[in-house]
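Hello,

Our lab assistant flagged a job as stuck in the queue for most of the afternoon. It eventually completed. Since we weren't sure the result was trustworthy after the delay, we are filing this so someone can double-check. Below is the sequence as submitted and the structure that was eventually returned. Let us know if re-running is recommended.
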Amino acid sequence: MSTYDIYSSPVPPGTWDVPATGAARFSWEYGDGRPYLLDLYQRGKDKQWDAVKRIDWDQPVNPVRVMETPDELVPIYGSRQWDKLNQGEREEMGRHLSSWLFSQFLHGEQGALTVAARIVESVPDMDSKFYAATQVMDEARHVELFNRFIQDKIGLFYPINDDLAKLLADALSDSRWDLPYLGMQVLIEGLALAAFGVHRDTTGNPLVKQLLAYVMQDEARHVAFGRLALRDYYAGLTAAERADREEFVVEGCYLMRSRFIAREVWERLGFDVAECVEFTDRSPTQVAFRQFLFSRIVPCVKDIGLWGPKVQRAYVDLGVIDAAGNNLEALMRDDEDTADRLEREHAADLAARRQEVDAAIASAAE
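-- returned structure --
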């Protein structure tokens, strides 16, 4: 079945073409490179995995309660719109919200796949080309994984969010080699990493927890790549060049803030869109969620040196300036460790179930 047949609203067939500018850069310097990037490249090679084999796809998912989280975490919980819905309508809304969420994850990963390939082409340093090549494979795996999850477990796709599409187009269409890094590795990947973390830690579904944890293990390296590659380069920018990048960061962060409003769901279900958006904008739960979304972006932006007054004012306005003090390395180390821990726990559960089955078979034979 074509995925075009199971979109929530019609999507034009064919490709979305973003004009690309800038040079494909070759380097004849094959020296040792920077140790920290070569170490990241080695980790990228060592940590490759197969989504077909590593994930237990037989685990069940209820398509109307994919996340298995309390109703209090529904964006419009407690609103007038929520109160007038019956149980069946709330379940249908749950399916659409999950479809929309994982569809944005899927589209974002395809964007990351394309931008990573662009980085291989445009970055001037061989060590960066090496690592970006491992990221291309990571992103292909993530596209495969989220596509399978949506098709097999939810059965409904949503089109790409306009704000995400705009930031992708801005990052890809700029001729400067560092802008795809900044747009994707710092902003889009940083926000996605935090969003994955929220849902990994709140979901009650083992399959959702597993696949998000494994994707986060990769994404932690991707954010580190952007941080390490840009920190040295931005230290040498002129004030005008730095101001230009800071303007890009501010615009991108406001786009990312709007990315998780879920306007498309409210429109598709025929809700009062303005009322739903206003409610979620004021909801304490959603305010806390948005603050957490920037937990990786803000310290990374500060670390790479784009920390002028305009950026800081924007983060104050967004209510996320306190995230500047977060320990980014500790957060990403925990993201990688959590995936390994979940894998060990899942393997132990599988072994225990196999023992139970073997014991039942032996008992029946006796």
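-- support follow-up --
The delay was a queue issue, not a problem with the job. The result is valid. The CA atoms of residues 73 and 238 lie 45 Å apart. The mean pLDDT is 90.
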